[in-house]
Design brief:
single chain; alpha+beta; Nuclear Transport Factor 2, Chain: A; 3 domains; 7-stranded mixed β-sheet; 6-stranded mixed β-sheet; 12 helices; 19 strands; globular
């Protein structure tokens, strides 16, 4: 016992119990954000394949769904009924049907009591029927979630249909033919649409469920893994008020066991982050054909299998296969963007292996020869080798490839078979057909709501002195703070994209440090918040909404590197933009951010925002035939405070944006030079 009956716990014991209780709550806060992310990602994977029962089972019993302007369907049974109607009365895709709804850009806000949450997401939709018509779609979700007996469930899905246009003509000349309505005429809703709005070329900005993380954080009291204020000195009174704390029973052995359990759980969260960093790095290396760096991410006996190519075994063979895809290092006239999206990561109980599902969205081209869209799913495996996570199995299942010019309603490119020039070591591990076939890639996990949770092994007791426990807790507090910081910075990255997409210039400038800088598209450096705000005028007037304006900037695939003192950070992330104006122009923009951040009074702010644009390509032309063009450069009427710091060229030229971080396996800087 902490203290003999009648004498009461000592101040030292009170401090131990209070600190460990607060630390447990903070750890749960990070777990909650991860669980909600997995939940919504699972929604996307099930929705893609029209697995309507699995989708419906993610909802709470009184959950609701509202897609576009169909109205609100209330209760799990009605959610299921709506989904079946949305899918044409059946579960599963028809051959030749595409129904991809990529889930990106989460901004998750958990309530202070940890029982409910809200989140904004964006869906990128590629839908249609081979031999029929293809569509581009996009729009934000504003969803709600509830924690029911320790399991997060969807309370409400509300997808605002911003864009749904035919592939031919795209958003420049084609309005949304559905008007946001899909099944309402045949399956009346329980309630009318909660918001009336018009779809493209009209524009509507749904209210944000989150506050500006800099200007309003303290007032709103959000709990989406924030960095907490220092805890007050505990007393017996505050100890007795703490949740799940008894002032009479915890022994040093029990507290030692709780600390040991915390260490295992914190390590598991760190492992998930490390695996995300590993796979996202693979994507950035593959983009620029830095094959030696990509192969170095594999275990010595790791394997790679792409489509129907067969299995290549061992790091040397992985490298040989990757180099068979093209020369090492960035190549002029070659685009090979491989976006790594929508992760669902599960680490084994022993912390030595892991599995993860990823969505890959690909843009591939050789200038003057071809340009393709690609989609696929990764079901990968990882191994922890001497404390470092490595890829043990990289398995890409091709969903769909199609020529840019034709689109998926007209042409489906078969998945490649084994190479005659570089035969694989083993035949394909799974026989399947890509689009137009409707193959469901096997899931390594069960439905996150209906799955029976694993029974945790009882924690080992540990006798420790108060000083030893306090030292261990101090180390764990530092680790949890770093987990919270990474969650906050990834959240900030998504918020930046939403503000940029909707021309929310004051809010966007408000998340910069007072001496922050912005440098986009070689327009030069704008230094200080006032100059950042002035720079944003280059992209349009902050009058939202604007009829017929597409300025959708999507940010994803973040890699965060915290400084040792936790007061600054770097982040590499990917940008993809759907841009244009009704009946005037339409274009794609792709690029890479290398940003820095600073923590001021416990709140993260952008210190420097720098974008290296990969391409600006007219929608009607595409990457095969697009003409070389320089980045926009300096605008004389709104000049920068300093010239560009790092000149670059865009596709079809080749440029490797500098990496702020080392290869996560080798620990060596990445230069792009052949090894």
């Amino acid at each position: 016992m902490l203290a003999a009956c009648g004498s009461g716990p000592s101040p030292e014991d009170i401090a131990l119990v209070a600190r460990i209780s607060v630390l447990e709550q903070r750890k749960v806060g990070v777990e909650d954000v991860n669980a909600i992310e997995r939940l919504q990602h699972a929604y996307g994977y099930y929705f893609d394949r029209a697995l309507w029962d699995d989708v419906a089972n993610l909802f709470a019993d009184d959950g609701t769904i509202e897609i576009g302007l169909d109205g609100v369907y209330v209760g799990k049974a009605r959610v299921r009924e709506y989904l079946y109607a949305f899918g044409g009365g059946r579960a599963g895709l028809r051959d030749g049907q595409l129904n991809e709804y990529l889930q990106v850009m989460p901004v998750i806000t958990v309530s202070p009591d940890g029982r409910t949450a809200k989140a904004r997401w964006r869906a990128i939709a590629l839908t249609g029927q081979l031999g029929g018509e293809a569509f581009w779609g996009e729009g934000p979700y504003e969803n709600e979630y509830v924690k029911d007996n320790g399991v997060w469930k969807i309370k409400s899905v509300h997808w605002y249909q911003a864009l749904n246009v035919p592939y031919e003509g795209g958003w420049q000349t084609r309005p949304d033919p559905t008007g946001g309505k899909h099944v309402a005429a045949t399956l009346p809703a329980d309630r009318p649409p909660s918001v009336e709005y018009k779809t493209w070329p009209d524009t509507y900005v749904p209210p944000f469920s989150f506050a500006n993380p800099v200007a309003k954080y303290a007032a709103e009291g959000e709990r989406s893994a924030p960095t907490p204020a220092p805890a007050p000195t505990p007393t017996q009174a505050t100890l007795g008020a703490a949740s799940n704390v008894s002032i009479e029973t915890p022994s040093r052995e029990v507290l030692g066991a709780r600390a040991a359990a915390l260490e295992r759980e914190i390590t598991a969260l760190e492992d998930v982050n490390a695996i995300k960093r590993l796979q996202r790095s693979y994507g950035f290396y593959a983009d620029k054909q830095v094959w030696s760096e990509a192969a170095a991410l594999f275990a010595d006996d790791g394997t790679i299998e792409i489509g129907g190519s067969g299995v290549y075994v061992g790091q040397a063979r992985v490298l040989a296969f990757l180099r068979s895809l093209g020369p090492e290092s960035p190549q002029p006239g070659r685009l090979f963007d491989q976006m790594q999206l929508q992760p669902i990561v599960h680490v084994a109980a022993d912390g030595r292996t892991a599995q993860a599902r990823w969505h890959v969205f690909a843009q591939e081209a050789v200038h003057g020869e071809y340009a393709n869209w690609g989609l696929g799913v990764l079901e990968n495996e990882y191994v922890k080798d001497d404390g470092v996570w490595k890829i043990s199995r990289h398995h890409f299942f091709t969903t769909m490839y199609t020529p840019y010019e034709a689109g998926w309603a007209k042409t489906a490119i078969p998945k490649p078979g084994p190479s005659a020039e570089l035969p694989p070591d083993r035949p394909p591990s799974v026989e399947y057909e890509a689009y137009p076939a409707a193959f469901v890639v096997p899931f390594h996990y069960e439905n996150p709501v209906t799955a029976v949770p694993d029974t945790a092994a009882p924690a080992e007791t540990s006798a420790a002195t108060a000083a030893e426990l306090l030292a261990n807790l101090a180390r764990l507090e530092e680790r949890v703070t770093r987990l919270e910081d990474i969650a906050q910075l990834e959240r900030m990255n998504s918020i930046y994209g939403y503000y940029l997409a909707h021309l929310q210039w004051d809010d966007l400038a408000g998340i910069f440090a007072a001496d922050g800088t912005i440098e986009i598209a070689m327009r030069g450096v704008y230094a200080g918040q006032a100059s950042v705000r002035r720079n944003l005028n280059l992209y349009g007037l902050a009058t939202d909404p604007q009829f017929g304006l597409q300025h959708n900037h999507m940010q994803f695939q973040p890699i965060v590197t915290l400084a040792a003192d936790g007061q600054s950070a770097h982040m590499r992330s990917r940008a993809l933009s759907i841009m244009g104006q009704w009946e005037r122009y339409s274009q794609w923009m792709g690029g890479v951010y290398e940003n820095t951040y600073v923590k001021e009074n416990g709140v993260w702010k952008i210190k420097s925002d720098q974008v290296f644009n990969t391409y600006f390509v007219p929608y009607t032309v595409g990457w095969r035939d697009s003409q070389p063009r320089p980045p926009p450069g300096i605008t004389a009427s709104n000049p920068p405070d300093a010239p560009p710091t790092h000149p670059f060229e865009m596709y079809p030229s080749a440029f490797l944006p500098p990496f702020h971080y080392v290869n996560p396996v080798t620990g060596q800087p990445v230069t792009g030079a052949s090894q």
